[in-house]
Amino acid sequence: MIYTDKTPQQFHGEQPQETDVLIIGGGIIGVCTAYYLAKKGVNVTLCEKGRVAGEQSSRNWGWIRQQGRDEPEIPLSIEARRLWAQLCEETGEDLGYQANGVYYLAEKPGDLESFETFVSLAQKYELDTCMISRAQVHEDIQGKAGRWIGGMHTASDGRVEPGQATLGIAKAAERLGAVLCENNAVRTLVKTGGKITGAVTEQGEIKAAQVVLAGGAWSSLFASNAGIKLPQLSVELTVAATQAVPDICPANASDNTFALRRRQDGGYTVALKNNQTHHVGLDSFKFLRQWLPNMAENMKGTSVKPAAPKHYPDHWMQKRSWNGDETSPFERMRVLNSKPNQKELTALTAAFADRFPQLKGTKLQSAWGGLIDAMPDFMPVIDKAPKHENLHIVTGFSGHGFGIGPSVGRLMADVLTGKPAGHDLSSFAFGRF
Ligand SMILES: Cc1cc2nc3c(=O)[nH]c(=O)nc-3n(C[C@H](O)[C@H](O)[C@H](O)COP(=O)(O)OP(=O)(O)OC[C@H]3O[C@@H](n4cnc5c(N)ncnc54)[C@H](O)[C@@H]3O)c2cc1C
């Protein structure tokens, strides 16, 4: 289930005058950070401009994977796998978590070669990732005979119901004392003597010893108003949920152009892979230098449109600077409710029927769009902001931040309380661009 600005408000926290940590953004990153801080007894306030999990964190595929990650993210994904299981226990909420495995399915010999490269890397981290034969693939997944020539499988990977999981963790954070305020955009930061000392929200000023920017696709716009250049761009994707159908694959699986995940309601979340749209805006030019080195890789499967819909973060007419006493762009779009692309939905239905002929005629019961925030090297920024003491930037998860949300939240809670992160964060440094 996705959330929009029509979804009833669930968190009515009253903004305090002062807090130890202020979190900007109620996606999985902000919510997990709030949860682990509250668990430590830290006074934490989270402000969300619209609805908790309204944007990427309820619109994603719900894959929790270690498989196929870039090496710097592997330790985070291993810890996250453990934390997802623990969160189910300690929050008592139904997060929809199941360790049912992830399959990458090969369609040509080159796919198998790239899987083998990851399997060697996985061995270094003692992951249970392995190559599987064509016969094994077709035994595990009831697809069209001979459709795939082999695959890679990680049995300990899994899935959650993304919106439900984010909301569940948010409720648990609130029970532990975190203050969660929906419909409350953070407009600007307050700086005193060169240090960040709080922020101005649409409800007024809040003093904060530390601030965490976890604004998803809005982070770059927020940062730029504070004089920080964060080379983040966005791409839009279409996702759909089928009606309930017989179980043809209990796990998550994808090949080169199609992906599916079994849902708790008996349907599948389905999407076309490597199929996204970039809406050109001012930032596309502003950050061209940082994006150029990886352009060929970044453009794979990306179609380009000349302009983003109105009020999107990088719309041509977007307001780029404002003060705390003015309505900010964040209030103009409470929840970025991207529309699904109708042409893609037709292609998606055909792709599903092609792979699972026995389910031809399956109807899509809902469909939605999601705007992914991406960095030029597809890795997040998890770092202190330059020249802004007390501000931490945790954003740019480039289409795979949901699964590692719990470990990022845990490590941020440690960093914010003066403890070591427990992971090497050098690959996520702000200064790498
Ligand atoms: C279609 C799709 C499929 C994906 N599939 C997967 C997957 O299978 N597995 C995986 O691991 N990842 C996946 N991802 C990526 C994953 O969803 C994101 O990386 C993750 O949800 C990012 O979380 P976040 O908290 O950083 O951002 P978001 O969830 O976008 O949350 C940011 C929040 O900040 C709020 N905000 C912004 N600015 C302000 C402000 N000034 N004041 C107050 N609030 C503000 C926004 O309203 C928003 O709610 C997918 C993403 C999409 C779109």
Keywords:
13 helices, 433 residues, 8-stranded mixed β-sheet, binds flavin-adenine dinucleotide, single chain, alpha/beta
Describe the structure.
With 433 residues, this protein is of the alpha/beta class. Strand 13 and strand 14 form a beta hairpin. The relative contact order is 0.19. The protein is built from 13 helices and 20 strands. The strands form four sheets. Strands 1, 2, 8, 9, 10, 11, 19 and 20 form an eight-stranded mixed sheet that branches. The two termini are 36 Å apart. It has two domains: 361 residues, FAD/NAD(P)-binding domain; 54 residues, no CATH class. The protein is globular. It binds flavin-adenine dinucleotide.
What's a quick, concise take on this entry?
The protein is 28% helix and 25% strand. It is an alpha/beta fold.
**C-alpha Rg, in Å?**
21 Å
User: How much of the residues is beta strand, in percent?
Assistant: 15-25%
Helix content: 25-40%
Can you count the helices? 13
Shape-level CATH architecture of the largest domain:
3-Layer(bba) Sandwich
What small molecules accompany the polymer chains? flavin-adenine dinucleotide
CATH class of the largest domain: Alpha Beta
- Approximate shape: globular
- Give the rounded overall mean pLDDT: 97
Uncertain residue segments:
none
In total, the number of domains comes to: 2
What is the CA-CA span between the terminal residues?
Answer: 36 Å
Strand tally, please? Answer: 20
Class of secondary structure makeup: alpha/beta
CATH homologous superfamily label of the largest domain: FAD/NAD(P)-binding domain
Main beta-sheet strand count, sense and barrel state:
8 strands, mixed
Q: CATH topology of the largest domain, which one?
A: FAD/NAD(P)-binding domain
